[in-house]
């Protein structure tokens, strides 16, 4: 059975045309066979009519001349004028006796049809049937003029005609299919452009548009496609603008929270440490048993200060403008290694110079790395995280320099669509928006059974035009 799923539309339509053409050929062949049988029947009936009229005239002549010795029936004159190959003519008396009979010879130049065709033809048309006409004299039937044809003759003629039709069909059908296929290929050629446009839209190229087509149906599809592309581009632009504003608000809140923690909570912890030191001096002179409590208060305040420094470092990164991207990332990795005590282990490799990088690019790349390391350490349960930062120079043939950022870990790959941490502003969506603001590309792949890879490519020339999303305060 033919499998229609995934087959070429042109081939499917061509096959349907071939099937319809075959059915039409079968109907036409049947019509011609019926008409041929009807023509043969009409010819036999005409011969029988002529024979009956001739015999009636002969009988009337005998009676009028009162010549009993005249021969009757005499079918020689009729047979000489109407006899054809395979045709038989006879006179049958009322008693059923055949008084005279003439039969034409069979054709010798026609090939014998196959037995199956002969059997089918005789079953459908019954060419052996006789045509009988009564011979009447003075109002009384004196016999019958009988005409029939040898069934082999019309069967052979039908097979010969069917063979010619079949030959014509075998030549015409491939030509018809080839012409239909070529016409369909030409008519459906714009579908390639539609497919290419859809692929470009799927790849993120929202500037893809379709030209007008000759066919009205395809032009309507092109118009709808262009409208959808425009609306999708507008909706995506609005979403990107909103997301970037949210990122700005988020970063501003981070800076505000870091400032509040540093000014209020930090000063309070410093005051607690100072009071603990003062209380320890007093206790050393007046109440030695309180020395342990004073030392405990001081240690607790010191631990809280360390925790506060780590939180402030995550909320407000160091000034990337002053330290540079490379030094800031090295400090970030060192901080993670210090806090994690080797589990997981963070490694960093930097190649190329980033000293002249635009400040907005440095700040956004720092945030991307910060969020990626946080996800790998806290949500993926990675034991090893590899960070590689490379300044890829422009190729000799032309093009722009690009910053390539790669982060690989061996943690359990979470579902970016299902993990709320990855979908939040601190996760993959925030990274994508930051990369989009720089005119770059981001890809995230998960391995089996574990591990994940984050790749970011930012063209340096394009990033110079990007609006800054964050400047470290």
From TrEMBL:
What's the protein name? histidine kinase
Primary location group? membrane
Chemical reaction(s) catalysed: ATP + protein L-histidine = ADP + protein N-phospho-L-histidine
Family matches, as SUPFAM superfamilies: ATPase domain of HSP90 chaperone/DNA topoisomerase II/histidine kinase
Its domain of life? Bacteria
At the top of the EC hierarchy, this enzyme's class is transferase
Segments crossing the lipid bilayer: 13-34, 165-184
**Which part of the chain is the HAMP domain?**
185-237
Query: What Pfam families does its record include?
Result: HAMP, HATPase_c, HisKA_3
Keyword tags: Kinase, Membrane, Phosphoprotein, Transferase, Transmembrane, Transmembrane helix, Two-component regulatory system
**Localization:** Membrane
Please give the InterPro entries that the UniProt record associates with this protein. HAMP_dom, HATPase_C_sf, HATPase_dom, His_kinase_dom, Sensor_HK_TwoCompSys, Sig_transdc_His_kin_sub3_dim/P
For the keyword DNA-binding, the answer is no
